């Protein structure tokens, strides 16, 4: 299930590339079907990956239970917020402007992810974590039961 969900998610991410390669092709059946299903298929694939992890269909010590996922989960929202800024920066890279296939995008993807997560780490360390601790201390002083106590 993990492999199938991963393939489905990646095919939805990169399925838009034919439209970028041939922007003047107009309303084709492929574009219509892709536009109709990509959000649903991508969401279902991510839901499957999450359910595999939550409901314990993964074995202890497997790839999906590696500690790196816990670390990345804390940074994911910040990475989501900053990744478009990083992508915008990559739009001005000459190599990617001349790329005629998916290989340029695939080559840039790891670098975009690394830069986005590095920026996310900085924001987590200097914004989210301190504010989480501050909120936790404030809720303790006010004797308010809160979900923010997880930041201790």
TrEMBL record:
The chain crosses the membrane at residues 31-56, 68-90, 102-127. Keywords: Membrane, Transmembrane, Transmembrane helix. The keyword Transmembrane applies. InterPro entries: O2_lipid_transport_reg (IPR052728). The keyword Translocase does not apply. It comes from the Eukaryota. PANTHER family: ACYLTRANSFERASE 3 DOMAIN-CONTAINING PROTEIN-RELATED (PTHR11161:SF12), O-ACYLTRANSFERASE (PTHR11161). This is Acyltransferase 3 domain-containing protein. It comes from Plectus sambesii.
């Amino acid at each position: 299930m993990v492999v199938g969900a991963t393939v489905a998610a990646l095919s939805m991410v990169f399925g838009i590339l034919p439209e970028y390669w041939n922007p003047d092709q107009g309303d084709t059946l492929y574009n219509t079907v892709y536009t109709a299903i990509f959000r649903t298929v991508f969401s279902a694939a991510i839901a499957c990956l999450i359910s595999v992890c939550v409901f314990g269909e993964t074995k202890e010590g497997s790839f999906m239970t590696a500690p790196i996922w816990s670390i990345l989960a804390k940074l994911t929202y910040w990475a989501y917020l900053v990744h478009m800024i990083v992508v915008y920066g990559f739009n001005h890279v000459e190599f990617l402007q001349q790329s005629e296939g998916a290989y340029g995008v695939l080559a840039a993807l790891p670098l975009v992810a690394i830069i986005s997560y590095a920026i996310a780490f900085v924001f987590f360390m200097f914004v989210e974590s301190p504010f989480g601790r501050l909120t936790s201390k404030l809720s303790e002083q006010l004797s308010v039961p809160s979900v923010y106590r997880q930041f201790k």
